[in-house]
Amino acid sequence: MKGDNDGPSFSNIPAKSASYYDRNTQxxxxxxxxxxxFIDEFLEYLQKGKGKAVLDLGSxxxxxxxxxxxxxxxxxxxxxxxKMIEYARSRYPHxxxxxxxxxxxxxxxxxxxxxxxxxxxxxxxxxxxxxxxARLYEILRQGGxxxxxxxxxxxxxxxxSHPLIPSDQVFLNIFAKEEIVGLLSEHRFxxxxxxxxxxxxxxxxxxxxFIIAKKTEPLxxx
Length: 222
Ligand SMILES: C[S@@+](CC[C@H](N)C(=O)[O-])C[C@H]1O[C@@H](n2cnc3c(N)ncnc32)[C@H](O)[C@@H]1O
Description:
Mean pLDDT: 93
GO molecular function: methyltransferase activity
Number of helices: 7
CATH topology: Rossmann fold
Distance between the termini: 50 Å
InterPro entries: Methyltransf_25, SAM-dependent_MTases_sf
CATH class: Alpha Beta
Bound molecules: S-adenosylmethionine
Protein name: Methylase involved in ubiquinone/menaquinone biosynthesis
Radius of gyration: 16 Å
Strand content: 25-35%
Domain Methyltransferase: 54-144
Region (Disordered): 1-33
CATH superfamily: Vaccinia Virus protein VP39
Structural class: alpha/beta
Strand order of the largest sheet: 4-3-2-5-6-10-9
């Protein structure tokens, strides 16, 4: 794994990430065939709240969308990589996958009961993550639930090589645990469950953090 801040510039990161995943759709998809860790726990919260409409943010090959659809949830996947969208559509033709940027979400307020962001917020720069969380709050219905998984460690951002794709680099935002917890609280999400996993096998050498959080009531105007 290589990480540094001397690689490509931080301008237009969404396009750079999309291009990375266009180049690496095949290898990413082959090595990521299982639904996300703790996805069943996330879906249990939705069942309790009778929430059905799920946005899969940065849906990649569509494995999570396919799994949630098989559990009778109504899923829309969105991803900025054309090749990932093509792959997901061909594998799950019965699910709606939209080509789009999670920094410019084309949904109106209260559109979803829940949002799954499995290793997708890691591709947003630190200056933009707050505004994206504010938008996620907006498009979630009251009491909605969000799942997110991120790489965590000492807070940094830069370009890294995945051990399975050593010749290429992708932008990653590595969160300190208190950083992502603070961001969620600042944007009025209340954490209801949290797990950590140490890196194992050929993965990025960071602890993985999984958070399930609930949208809290909007602030009352004075
Ligand atoms: C690490 S993959 C995760 C894919 C899937 N969620 C999973 O858990 O396997 C990150 C995905 O986020 C997508 N992505 C990165 N930046 C994006 C952006 N700004 N808007 C939409 N999708 C983005 C990438 O194209 C890629 O498919």
